[in-house]
Amino acid sequence: MTTTASQLPDILKRHDGPILKDWVKEQLSVSRPEVTSESTLRQQSQRFLGLLRDAVQSGDLGDITGPAWTGVREMLDELSHARAATGSTPSETATFVLSLKQPLFARLRQEVGRDADTLADEIWRVSLLLDKLGLYTTEVYLKGREELIRRQQHEMLELSTPVVQLWDGVLALPLIGTLDSARTQIVMENLLHRIVETGAAIAIIDITGVPTVDTLVAQHLLKTVAAARLMGADCIISGIRPQIAQTIVHLGVELSNVVTKATLADAFTIALQRTGATIGKGAGR
Amino acid sequence: MERIPILRTSEFLLVTIQVDMHDRLAMTLQEDLTDQIVRHHSRGVLIDISTLEVVDSFIGRMIGNIAAMSRVLDAETVVVGMRPAVAITLVELGLSLPGVRTALNVDKGMDLLRRSLHGTPNGGS
């Protein structure tokens, strides 16, 4: 199959206007007007047709990764991101490209209508090209999404691991959200570094904000406790809700080596006692 | 041969590991330390590993062994000054050194030993 034989460049050149008109009509019939307005759609379509025309004229029809397709790819990148931001689904974005098939096929049939073999060839080639471009938009869409998720994960990690000093020699680590391996690592490092900085002898790990405790989370907690102990600091786990206490026992997690308290206040009282400080309501104490 | 010096204070032995701990050195330390405990009737041993940057499972186990041996000889062992990275590594290796007492620095380790030897609240051996 030789690409030079394709009539697509020629058709795109000569029937520019009608193709655009048909295409926009086609898109309007399937798109939601609240997502993309007609004028934007028309503008985008026109730009894409122009870039496509240039690309097929200068380049290879089979390979959209080549330099001739840079313009088209950039435009699709931009379009995909813009659509994703306005809340389009990936299939809606891909439809933008795929809906060009019908008007193009209609033109092709007009041009080479009598020769069935050539027509089939041409349609196959154009179809293949548009499918690739359609898939490309989906890929870009997904990449954008993944990047967003990665960034948010990163931000969450930074947000969620504060180590606060409650008293001279007493640190608290209020954990919020599910503990996975990556987070545990960061939590552990933060805590250990703060222990060195402050010379704390006691660290209270408060798990009030941890929604579920399974064996893995418990294991992560125990690792953190063990590491802190190696540094010479005792850990108290507080904020254990009734359901979590039940779960821990049902799972057979061994927490007997660790001091556990129901509330942060209880843990703090114990911590103060151990550091030798006293605190009371009366003014005389 | 290279050796890790063991310093003797009035009641305790102080071991400061300031070089890269290799396996041979660890074995020698183990022998020297047990000898010294017996010779000086020491009741407490402080092992300062604040300059130790790299540990492997062997060194981790060796620290545990030294502590266990000292205990047999009726001397409390306190490991002090472990770095965060070392602590994390040991935990990840599954060596949380049960039975070894730890403290943040030599000062606190000394306090801990005194408290446990002179029968104050934390009640030692």
Describe this structure in words.
The complex is a heterodimer of chains A (285) and B (125). Chain A has 285 residues and is an alpha/beta fold. Chain A contains eleven helices and five strands; from the N terminus they run H-H-H-H-H-H-H-E-E-H-E-H-E-H-E-H. Chain A folds into two domains: 153 residues, Histidine kinase N-terminal domain (Globin-like); 112 residues, STAS domain (Transcription Regulator spoIIAA, 2-Layer Sandwich). In chain A, helix 9 links the parallel strand 3 and strand 4. Chain A starts with 7 loop residues before the first helix and ends in a 10-residue tail after the last helix. Chain B has a single domain, classed as Transcription Regulator spoIIAA. The chains are: A alpha/beta (285), B alpha/beta (125). The interface between A and B is medium-sized, with 19 and 19 residues.
Mean pLDDT across every amino acid position of chain A: 84
**Classification by helices and strands of chain B:** alpha/beta
Compute the number of strand runs of chain B.
5
The figure for the number of domains of chain B is 1
**Helix and strand element order of chain B:** EEHEHEHEH
Largest interface: A-B, 19 and 19 residues
CATH topology of the largest domain in chain A: Globin-like
Structural class of chain A: alpha/beta
> Which spans of chain A of ≥5 residues are poorly predicted at pLDDT below 50?
none
The number of helical runs of chain A is 11
Quaternary state reads heterodimer
Main β-sheet of chain A: number of strands, strand sense, barrel status? 5 strands, mixed
